[in-house]
Amino acid sequence: MGWNTLNDISLGGKVVLTRVDINVPVENGIVTDDTRIKRIKPTIMDILAAGGKPVLLAHFGRPNGKYIPEMSLRVTVPTLEKVLGRTVTFIEHPDRAVIDATPADAVILIENTRFSAMEECNDPEMASFLASLGDVFCNDAFSASHRAHASTTGVAALLPNCAGRLMAEELSALKKALGNPQRPVVAVVGGAKVSTKLDLLGNLIDKVDTIIIGGGMANTFLAAQGHGVGKSLCEHDLASTAQDIMERARLANCKLMLPCDVVVAAEFKACAEHEIVAANACPPDMMILDAGPNSVAQIKALFGTAKTVIWNGPLGAFEIEPFQTATFAAAKAAADITKLGDLITVAGGGDTVAALNTAGVADDFTYISSAGGAFLEWMEGKTLPGVAALGG
Ligand code: AMP
């Protein structure tokens, strides 16, 4: 792999600037989900064990270069202390002397990097200021690595750098799924719209053996094939784009799988009356809200013959009962085969992770990426500047 890990750099007595993602949900001044904080613990503990002093750099919310008291990272300190079992020193206005004066086993957290307007434009002045605070830069925030900011790429160029444990784990899982995967590779691409996933489909066509298209996106393809989709969510203006994608897939020998049956309802609401019809038989006054049982059976069979599954996007409107059925059943099948050791399953994206968590199968997938935008850009085949800055 092209990047250093924490094992490759001497950390004893060094101040290790560590870019983390602790952009956690907060309600009434309290962190309501500590998942992101738990995931950076191995990196912080390993830096401490190697005699380094971790100084955490992170953003929180979108303050757009201004100080906004509600977006201060101070709110995360109690949770960080609880998860790490250490005192965390919060520094609002960082300087090297203050960092050096804290005890050797301290964990330091610096105020929201996005309070400075220089962060998001990757201003060299901010990058050198950050570099002056430490001796080594460790990036453990894959989820922020699709942005070329001062705290992700600028500072990386100025100090010896390495990937943290979470970053390294994420990069190797992603490489396993698309870099040099075990074949056949099946991609599940669902979600609302084709328009947001054009680059992703374009990249996958050349890399995977089959793409299962689900969710609202599938409606656009069904319509492009000349089937009525009634009142379904559908981008009719993208019919020729969908036809191009089908043609490109045919030429690349990548199979596109659309649902063969679907669940339709007259209304987009919980427990709406619904029925199962063939994918080419959506009544004009109804909408497609999920894939049907025969489609799920086909998907399960495909997973049974695959060696790698990469998944982004739900197969239906999974937030609304009972239109989660296909997503959950397919996710369970993927998880069960993964548990047998026969399949590598990698998934990511906000809605996908929410769906897999609700289905109760997230722990059984080989890897679930906690990154949203960065995971998508990686699936699109783009170079992530924060990763490139590490030499990855
Ligand atoms: P995305 O953010 O593009 O991955 O889309 C996820 C959203 O697509 C979820 O909120 C789903 O409820 C929605 N979705 C999936 N399938 C359908 C469908 N058939 N009709 C309407 N919305 C859907």
Task: Throw out a few tags for this protein.
Rossmann fold; 392 residues; 17 strands; alpha/beta; 36% helix
Give a written overview of the molecule.
The chain has 392 residues and is of the alpha/beta class. The chain folds into 2 domains: 6-167, Phosphoglycerate kinase, N-terminal domain (Rossmann fold), CATH 3.40.50.1260; 181-379, Rossmann fold (3-Layer(aba) Sandwich), CATH 3.40.50.1260. It contains 15 helices and 17 strands. It has helices at 35-49, 77-84, 96-101, 117-120, 124-132, 150-154, 165-179, 198-205, 215-224, 239-251, 293-305, 325-339, 350-359, 373-379, 385-388; strands at residues 15-19, 26-27, 30-31, 53-57, 88-91, 107-110, 136-139, 161-163, 185-189, 210-213, 255-257, 261-265, 274-278, 287-291, 308-312, 344-347, 367-368. The strands form 4 sheets. A 6-stranded parallel beta sheet has the order 5-6-4-1-7-8. A 6-stranded parallel beta sheet has the order 11-10-9-15-16-17, sandwiched between helices. Strand 7 (136-139), helix 6 (150-154) and strand 8 (161-163) form a beta-alpha-beta unit. Helix 1 (35-49) packs across helix 2 (77-84) and helix 11 runs parallel beside helix 12 (325-339). The longest helix has 15 residues, at 35-49. The N and C termini lie close together (7 Å). The mean pLDDT is 96. Bound molecules: adenosine monophosphate (AMP).
